[in-house]
Each structure stands twice: as structure tokens, then as C-alpha cells.
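A quick word before the example. In earlier lectures we treated sequence and structure as two separate objects. From today on, think of them as two lines of the same record. Here is Hemerythrin-like domain-containing protein written that way.
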Amino acid sequence: MLIEDRAICLDSITPSRSQRQQRPQPPSNMAFYADHPYALIPTPAFQNSQNEKETSEPDMFVRVASEMALVHNMAIRGLNSIYLQAPHVPAAESRAFLRYVLAWHDLLHVHHSGEEADLFPAIEAMAGQAGLMDGNVSQHEEFRDGLAAFKAYVDACASGREQLDGARLVALIDGFGGPLARHLGDEIPSILGLRLFGADKMAGLEQKFAEEGEKNMVSRPPPSRRLTAMPGLLVVR
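And the structure line, produced from the sequence above:
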């Protein structure tokens, strides 16, 4: 079992100078754990609660956007944990770590494929505006190739064709992590923006989002890659 170590320091990765310049750095006031290098997304519900002028209960759009932010934060925490742990995984534990990485990839794949195939078309149908969610889908393309390269390397390591190199895995994350994190953040205001179409027209949004979540929960990975804990703890069986 591997658990994230608060004492881990990114400086110990010893990347090249160009990698250090390109790699996102944690804000100085951010907790040093799984909250970097990619920042978590504040939920609209929490943001509203901090506004003294906001006294109304969260509406459907705030609730759905906040739920989406929480799903995205699960993916971000998982990616951060992989990023921080990769350079420090002993050879004896590399197999378990790789299974954890593949489980994280499964989570992201199920989430985004479900959006493209089901959730986004349903939103466009409710709004009566074809192509409304095209911007979100186009952002998927921005990190698709980098994510595919990452997955190919992890598969090669898991099959024994290559030996896990933590620094290489981190470099591959650098190739897609920025666009992925931006997309995960940008999608939240796009959900809030659906308010423009009115609550009556978008009345089915919350139910559709719940149904999509249920569908994703049953789209489970193979038994060899099932998580036994939330992302952030490397516990895989």
C-alpha cells in the first residue's frame, strides 16, 4: 500500500531545466498534499455561501455545476497523487501503482465518453441549440493525444514491456495535465451558463446529470483495476 507522503518534494524529481520551466508550480498558500500541481475547483455552492449578499438557496444550475466540480476534483486529486508519487514508487510496488494509474484513467475515460455520447447531446436537446456544448468537446481534443501517450506508456509498463520510470511518467503528465485541468475548470461556468435558457426549458438537467452519474458508476473497470479507496490513496486490488 502506498499513501501520499506530505514530506515528498517535487525538487527531488530532478527534472531538466526546460521541464522545470514548463511544469506548473503550486501557489505558495496551497496545502502541500494532493492539491498541486493542478489546483482544485471551488464549487459554485461554496462560493455563493461566502457571499454575504447571496441569501437564496442554490438553484438547479448551481447544484449541478457544484456536483460536476466535485467529480472533476476527484479526477484532479487522482492525477496529482500520481504526479507526486510516481518518482518515489519502489520497484516492488510498481505493479500496484500502475493498476491505480489505470483505474484513474478508466474514471476519466468513462466521464468524458459519457459526456460526449449522452449528457451533452441531452443538454443541447433541452436548450434547443445544436452545438451548444461543442466548446467543451473541442477541449477534450486538446489533451486527447497527450493522454493517449500516457496511457500507452502505462499499458507498456503494466504488461512488462517497459520498466516504470517515474520521471518519464511525470513528463507525460506534463504533456496533457495543463489542458486537462483548464478544461475541468472551464466546464463549471458552462454549466452555470445554462441558466440563460431558463429553468423551465432545462427542467430535466438535474435528473439527466444524476442518471449519467448512475450510468458511470456501473461502467466499472475490470476487477484487476478496481479501486478500494478514493483517489488520493493508492489502494488497489
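Notice the following. Residues 1-21, 26-30, 223-237 have pLDDT under 50 and may be disordered. We will return to this example when we discuss secondary structure assignment.
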